[in-house]
Automatic annotation (TrEMBL):
Alphabetical keyword list: ATP-binding, Cytoplasm, Kinase, NAD, NADP, Nucleotide-binding, Transferase
A Pfam family it matches: NAD_kinase_C
Annotated GO MF terms: kinase activity
Name of the gene this protein is made from: nadK
Main localization, broad class: cytoplasm
Chain positions recorded as NAD(+) binding sites: 73-74, 78, 147-148, 158, 177, 188-193
Entries under SUPFAM superfamilies matching the protein: NAD kinase/diacylglycerol kinase-like
Active-site residues, as the UniProt record annotates them: 73
Protein name per the record: NAD kinase
Sequence similarity: Belongs to the NAD kinase family.
Length: 299
């Protein structure tokens, strides 16, 4: 006898469209005999009788076959924080804007759920980064990110003074608004907005992107996935803030040191389509490709 299948549904309940979509997903999963879980912070807004209400913790995704996320990339990142520890795959349904992490669109929702029910999907692993904050050699905080860890200035009026380090060697001192350390997955997020390169997801690397740095050398850099990147706040200067995937802020006093390395645990993303990343870029950014003829066939 096989174990009962279960799926955790995470919803951006602040959007009425997301709530309506979640009802379709929950009803269709239930009709397929799949047990549905929802988070206790969302249960009241969803009002779905028969769903198992779970605490907002890693236990919510433990033992589940999948986490289906209804929202934008922000909602997917929030769900990734729940699912990473158990290795549960995420499937994002885009109800936001660009939605690079999402695999499906709202208009394909019914077909998406049917594919999940029929187990017609693949799973790919995405690199993460682990973050350690030290003060006078003592670890004061830890974190992780799927997209990026960003060290930013805490005060709008004052520039952040930092020294960047790669593999234990100093690289450069910057007066800047911040420094973004990103994964390939995060190359199309904050790092992209800061002028960093787009990196294909299967490339294993880390990106270091200074933000508005006052320096002769302040270009975006792509470093080895085995490297350790450190950003040290200059003592007797202004403090900063560390953001992991745009949330979970950590205050950084002057003299703090932020170390970023490849994460021990990847995030697993469910894929319904084998769409090339190039096509995803063209679609998401609306890139002009008129005039492309492709390779001329040999006659």
């Amino acid at each position: 006898m096989t174990d009962k299948r279960s799926v955790l549904v995470v919803t951006h309940t602040g959007r009425s469209a997301a709530v309506r979509s979640s009802h379709l997903v929950i009803d269709r999963l239930s009709e397929a005999g799949i047990c549905v879980r929802v988070l206790d912070s969302e249960a009241e807004d969803l009002q779905c009788a028969g769903a198992d209400v779970m605490p907002v913790s890693a236990a919510a995704a433990e033992g589940a076959e999948m986490v289906i996320v209804l929202g934008g990339d922000g909602t997917i990142l929030r769900a990734a924080d729940l699912a990473r520890r158990s290795g549960t795959p995420l499937l994002g349904v885009n109800l936001g804007h660009v939605g690079f992490l999402a695999e499906a669109e709202r208009e394909d929702l019914a077909a998406t759920v049917d594919k999940v029910a029929a187990r017609r999907y693949d799973v790919e692993e995405r690199m993460t980064i682990d973050v350690v904050v030290r003060q006078n050699g003592t670890v004061t905080s830890t974190g992780w990110a799927l997209n990026e860890a960003a060290v930013e200035k805490a005060s709008r009026q004052r520039m952040l003074e930092v020294v960047a380090e790669i593999d234990g060697r100093p690289l450069s001192r910057w007066g800047c608004d911040g420094v973004v350390c990103a994964t390939p997955t995060g190359s199309t997020a904050y790092a992209f907005s800061a002028g960093g390169p787009v990196v294909w997801p299967e490339v294993e690397a880390m990106l270091v992107v200074p933000i508005s740095a006052h320096a002769l050398f302040s270009r975006p850099m792509v470093v080895s996935p085995r490297s350790v990147v450190a950003v040290e706040l200059i003592p007797n200067s202004s403090g900063g803030v560390l953001w992991c995937d745009g949330s979970r802020p950590i205050d950084l006093p002057p003299g703090a040191r932020v170390e970023v390395r490849r994460g021990e645990r990847p995030v697993r993303l469910a894929r319904l389509h084998q769409t090339p990343f190039t096509d995803r870029l063209v679609t998401k950014f609306g890139l002009p490709v008129a005039g492309w003829r492709g390779r001329v066939r040999d006659e």
